[in-house]
Structures are given as structure tokens and as C-alpha cells.
Amino acid sequence: MDVLLTFRLIERISNLLRSEERKIFAALGLQPVHIQVLEYLAVCNRFSDTPASVAEYLGLTKGTISQSIQVLARKGYLTKNPDSKDGRVVHLALSAAGAKLLHDTKPLDVFKMAEQALAQQQFSDIDTALGAILAELQKANNAKSFGVCHSCINFIAHEDAYLCNLTQLPLSATDSQQLCREHAFMPTA
């Protein structure tokens, strides 16, 4: 197992899913941080539902979180409630609209399509499985794969020379190990 390859595959899958979420958020006038705040509030307990806890969990400044909370409260996605014992403390909670927004903005339908396409396949290692998941997600989203040349359908290796069949240009050994926006996964059996 190639740890760096595994990391890159997971990172690319995450980037692809976040990209789909950002498209949805932008249409709603929201930023990714706003959804991250709501996601945190959906899973935190009553001792951890304060602005300070949100800032600490997300690793962001209190100012950024304060502005995000204002936007989310104004749009009706969360509520702010003073603590019954300490009026300086504010507790945050998802509103029904916030919970619905979280449910509706997850690109799970795309992930389900990828999962169905892979359900019957057996994988020898995690990298092969992640590569197949990434390829299916990219197909479902019509997204470019940005894979490494040596795993591309257009990659041609002949002895110590490499060629991109798409561009008809030679590739160096370094090129063959780097990301390319023209990458196309080889078909799986």
C-alpha cells in the first residue's frame, strides 16, 4: 500500500465532494464555513454548543464564527439561546430549516451512484478501491479526474520513453508521476 497515494485519493475524493457542496451553498448565498458550523451543531452536545466551542472545533477565529453565526441566525438556520445560569453564555441550536438545509445539501445521491457501481467488485487493496470510488464520483459529476499520467488511458510507455497519446507529446519520468487535468482513468474490468 502506497500511503501517499492513499492520502491523495482520499484528498481528491474529499475535494470533489466539497466542490459539489460549494455549488449548492453558493446558490443559497452561503459559504462552506456556514455549513461546517451547522454540521458541528448537528452533532455536538449541550455542553459544546457555544460559539467558542464551534470556533475551537473548526480551528477558526471567534470573529469568523461570530460573523457566520450572525448570517445563519439571520437566514433562520440556527437559534441563539442565553444560558439559564450564566447570561454571558449563548447556546446555539439548529433550527428545523437548518436541519433541512444540511440534509438537502449533501451530495449523497452522487455518492450512492458510485457505491452502486462498485458494489459487486472485489478490490485487492485500499488504493484500488479508492481509485475506483473516485473514478465513479467523477463520472457521476462530469468532473475531471486530475490523475497521474501513468494511470491514464492515454499514457504510453515504451522501454524508457513515455508519451501522451492525447497530446502526442513526450513525457518525462517526472511528468508520468504528476497530476494532469487531461487524465482519463483506464477502464476497469
Task: Give a quick set of tags describing it.
mainly alpha, three-stranded antiparallel beta sheet, 50% helix, 3 domains, 11% strand, Arc Repressor Mutant, subunit A, two-stranded antiparallel ribbon, 189 residues, Ubiquitin Ligase Nedd4, Chain: W
Count the DSSP helices: 7
| CATH level-two architecture of the largest domain | Orthogonal Bundle
Number-wise, the strands total 5
Alpha-carbon distance between the termini? 21 Å
Briefly note the CATH topology name of the largest domain. Answer: Arc Repressor Mutant, subunit A
Helix content: 40-55%
Shape: elongated
User: How do the strands of the widest beta sheet line up side by side?
Assistant: 3-4-5
What does this structure look like?
The protein has 189 residues and is mainly alpha-helical. It has 3 domains: 1-19 and 107-143, no CATH class; 31-105, Arc Repressor Mutant, subunit A (Orthogonal Bundle); 144-189, Ubiquitin Ligase Nedd4, Chain: W. Helix content is 50%, strand content 11%. The protein has 7 helices and 5 strands; from the N terminus they run ααααββαααβββ. The chain has helices at 3-27, 32-43, 51-58, 62-74, 96-105, 108-118, 126-141, and strands at 78-82, 90-94, 155-158, 161-164, 169-171. The strands form 2 sheets. Strands 3-4-5 form a 3-stranded antiparallel sheet, with no helix packed on it. Strands 1-2 form a two-stranded antiparallel sheet. Strand 3 and strand 4 form a beta hairpin. Helix 2 (32-43) packs across helix 4 and helix 3 packs across helix 4 (62-74). The longest helix has 25 residues, at 3-27. The radius of gyration is 22 Å and the shape is elongated.
